[in-house]
Amino acid sequence: MTGQTLRLRGSFQKEIAHRLIDRAPEDAVLNIRPSTRTSEQNDKMWAMLSDISRAKPDGRDHTTDQWKAIFMAACGHKPTFLPDLERDGFICLGYKSSRLTKAEFSDLIEAIYAYGAEHGVQWSEPNPYEQAA
Predict the structure, then answer these.
(1) For 42-70, what is each residue's pLDDT tens digit?
(2) Where are the domain boundaries for CATH 1.10.3790.10 in the chain?
(3) Domain covering 35-132, topology
(4) Nearest CA to 7 among 38, 29, 28?
């Protein structure tokens, strides 16, 4: 049996999961975790980061990747710094938004919206929270 991924959305999927566990070989690895961000959330984040990058709020001229790191840190997702092989510099590990849960990613998008609102960023797509108000 090769690796299996299964989304538990109801009793049918849970039955399949039980059968897979019953058939799993010795020393198999099981990883049950909350689902991560959706493709739609990811697409929205990159569009928003592009909007902020173009706006250059407070004269800050950053790439979308740099803005992403700034917002990830603002939301409490701090990086780890390790010395490089020559020990004359550092490498940064972290800022993997693909590992965020849907709720964590939603918080990230909210932080981007809040910053953009404070700095007059023109969004390329409508903010659903402004329409609901």
Answers:
(1) 999 999 999 999 999 999 999 999 999 99
(2) 35-132
(3) NinB fold (1.10.3790)
(4) 38
